[in-house]
Amino acid sequence: MGQHAHRHLEHCGAELVAEAARALTAAGEQWTAMREAVFAELARHDRPVSAYDIADNLSAARGKRVAPNSIYRILDVFVSNNLAMRVESANAYLANTHPGCAHDCIFLVCDECGEAAHVDDEEVSRAVRAIAARRQFKAERPVLEIRGLCKSCA
Q1: Nearest to residue 99, comparing CAs of 16, 13, 42, 5?
Q2: Is residue 154 within 8 Å of 110, Cβ to Cβ?
Q3: Whole-angstrom Cα distance, residue 148 to residue 154?
């Protein structure tokens, strides 16, 4: 892993949910009960989870149906505010354990078990952004996914 230009404070559990609430409201967005429920459900998973899985789990917990479209809208807000990261190839999401911290998404995705490890590497991020800049392209949210097998499945 490359060196960070800044330090990350990794959060978990209730502290992670509270930090996400602080980051979202600081960005001028509302932290509603539904957004809190979606974030808490997302944060309890250590692997990427789909909007449908979140909707199913929340529906079961609440005893009433939660529509996946509502979950997608909330996840879009989370991604745009750096509270969550989207694993594009799996159409699944991971909670950002350092909410509000803007950085590029680099994932190592296991084709066997589905694990997606998020990697922060400033050197790779700079190289990807430099490639874009040389082509007069402004990179807004670079996502790099490396598919293969994790240590456990290899």
Answers
A1: 16
A2: no
A3: 9
